[in-house]
């Protein structure tokens, strides 16, 4: 549908015209206006805000195509990642926390990828309880044995899924936070020097990881170590085979990957792996899976390359030639900002928000050359590198990048986006080490509750600015539309959800037109809470602070009903969701 926007032009008066002349001109203008209104019938002129001393502000008209979706993404579109560093700093032992499981369950259904830079230094050992064999007393020894005692005595049976969840004492969590703070410095040193120590994943640790995923309603994707190499540079699969056999014996439903950012292997390990060799390694992994009954049809994803620069595109090209048909989806990673130089205003730069679009086109071009229509996933997306920056990448301001990423990826046909990381690992996470949800968690929760997989085309008028020579116009007001999540029983099928980002320093007014005209709207406006402003780690929904309930459950996300036909007023530098009820959109009535 084409949307038109008309506005009355201001008439300029001449200082040389006598008062009688001005009165005559005004009378003629009034008669002309009445005549045009009469001819137009019900088509009344659009209301325009008038501010003294300024030109009329543009009113934005918004309509959505409701007949057919432009894209349909995966039901698990917004998914999560856990970094293997949680083995190193001890947080893996706390994945049984009831509070952590509750937070993860709020974002289901989703994939849970277990992978990161330490993936290729991970070794599996089929040991049940190595903590008991350490023998030497010390904080780490006592912490692990204390955790064993707590799990034995305080494990509760979750009535919904029969999962093992625990209530860890405060003193135990305090000990763990002290240990994690010390280990965080070690992990940062490894990351900056690009030299990593080996990690041991025991059978007991794998049990805990799978229990967390299963209890939370998440499907586990496990990234295997690809840097174990034979003398001829082929993949050494002995450790992976041991892990596969153990997982199969436990009947764990897992999907698989091989390696993480293979384009960095030369700098990390001194040994490069080209695209064709990596493709052969994936074929080898596929052959390992096929004889194992539970994994004979397991999904396989890869190659999880880094930012698509020239050498990375060459690696992807070689991989797709050999193994393009072997993987169920092609994966890559993206990082927006260098975490060592980030400023809060960086998150408001439209140029930064648009950097992802060019990368998507580069990946799609290679994939469609060899396997047209193959699904593409963005795995391990982070706002800032080097583990993030405290009070910035975990603040309200970082949400603009995250929400725009979700909207842009769905619009351009990316099937799944995996957020790095759900918990732990620096400051890019959704949940902090006190098990408190951060702003991006609440943003993700709203997205999950309100947004369905069908993407709709948005039509606007009155948004465009006049172009200047040599200057690219970048939208500071970003509007995306989806069918409302059909699992949300508060809304009937056929409803539409808009999510809007306003980076302007002034409020913007949006008039719903066409199929959205005169419909009841539910507003979910997310704003920072507290004195820190954009750097706040707390948020409010429609003016009410968001936090977990005292009994450890998630709060009810209450909307603010807006009167039918009312103009949407978007406050400056905010983001929000707007459910347009009872649109009866054809694209949204059926799954």
TrEMBL record:
Any one GO molecular-function label of the UniProt entry: heparan sulfate proteoglycan binding
Cellular component terms per the entry's GO annotation: extracellular matrix; extracellular space; membrane
Signal peptide region: 1-37
Keyword Signal: yes
Name of encoding gene: Hpse2
Entry protein name: Heparanase 2
Pfam families xrefs: Glyco_hydro_79n
Family in the record: Belongs to the glycosyl hydrolase 79 family.
Organism: Peromyscus maniculatus bairdii
């Amino acid at each position: 549908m084409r949307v038109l926007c008309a506005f009355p032009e201001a008439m300029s008066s001449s200082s040389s015209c006598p008062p009688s002349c001005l009165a005559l001109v005004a009378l003629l203008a009034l008669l002309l206006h009445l005549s045009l209104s009469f001819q137009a019938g019900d088509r009344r002129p659009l209301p325009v805000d008038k501010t003294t001393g300024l030109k009329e502000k543009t009113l934005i008209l918004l309509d959505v195509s409701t007949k057919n979706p432009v894209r349909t993404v995966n039901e698990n579109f917004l998914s999560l990642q856990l970094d293997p560093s949680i083995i190193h700093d001890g947080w893996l032992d706390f994945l049984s926390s009831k509070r952590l499981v509750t937070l993860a369950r709020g974002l289901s259904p989703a994939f849970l990828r277990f992978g990161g830079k330490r993936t290729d230094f991970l070794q599996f050992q089929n040991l049940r309880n190595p903590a008991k064999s350490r023998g030497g007393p010390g904080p780490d020894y006592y912490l692990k044995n204390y955790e064993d005692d707590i799990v034995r005595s305080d494990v509760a049976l979750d009535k919904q899924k029969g999962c093992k969840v625990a209530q860890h004492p405060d003193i135990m969590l305090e000990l763990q936070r002290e240990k994690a703070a010390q280990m965080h410095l070690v992990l940062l040193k490894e990351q900056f020097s690009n030299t990593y120590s080996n990690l041991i994943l025991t059978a007991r640790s794998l049990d805990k990881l799978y229990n967390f995923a299963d209890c939370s309603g998440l499907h586990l994707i496990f990234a295997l170590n690809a840097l174990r190499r034979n003398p001829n540079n082929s993949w050494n699969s002995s450790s992976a085979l041991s892990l596969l056999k153990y997982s199969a014996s436990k009947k764990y439903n897992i999907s698989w990957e091989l390696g993480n950012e293979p384009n960095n292997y030369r700098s990390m390990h001194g040994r490069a792996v080209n695209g064709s060799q990596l493709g052969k390694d994936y074929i080898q992994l596929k052959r390992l899976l096929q004889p194992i009954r539970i994994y004979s049809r397991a999904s396989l994803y890869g190659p999880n390359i880094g930012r698509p620069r020239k050498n990375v595109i060459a690696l992807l090209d070689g991989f797709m030639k050999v193994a393009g048909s072997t993987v169920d989806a092609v994966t890559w990673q993206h990082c927006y900002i260098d975490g060592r130089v980030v400023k809060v205003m960086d998150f408001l730069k439209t140029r930064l928000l648009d950097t992802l679009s060019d990368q998507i086109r580069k990946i799609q071009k290679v994939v469609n050359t060899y396997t047209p229509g193959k699904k593409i996933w963005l795995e391990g997306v982070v706002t800032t590198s080097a583990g993030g920056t405290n009070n910035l990448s975990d603040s309200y301001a970082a949400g603009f990048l995250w929400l725009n990423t979700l909207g842009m990826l769905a619009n351009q046909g990316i099937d799944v986006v995996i957020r790095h990381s759900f918990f732990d690992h620096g400051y890019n996470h959704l949940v902090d080490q006190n098990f408190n949800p951060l702003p991006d968690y609440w943003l993700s929760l709203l997205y999950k509750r309100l947004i369905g997989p069908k993407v709709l085309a948005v039509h606007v008028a009155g948004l465009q600015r006049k172009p200047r020579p040599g200057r690219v116009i970048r939208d500071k007001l970003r509007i995306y539309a989806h069918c409302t999540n059909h699992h949300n029983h508060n809304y009937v099928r056929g409803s539409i959800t808009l999510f809007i980002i306003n980076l302007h320093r002034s409020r913007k007014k949006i008039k719903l037109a066409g199929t959205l005209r005169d419909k009841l709207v539910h507003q979910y406006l997310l704003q920072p809470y507290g004195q820190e402003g954009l750097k706040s780690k707390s948020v409010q929904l429609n003016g009410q602070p968001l936090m977990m309930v005292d009994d450890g459950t998630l709060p009810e996300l209450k909307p603010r009903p807006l009167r039918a036909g009312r103009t949407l007023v978007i406050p400056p530098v905010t983001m929000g969701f707007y459910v347009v009820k009872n649109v009866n959109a054809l694209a949204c009535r059926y799954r």
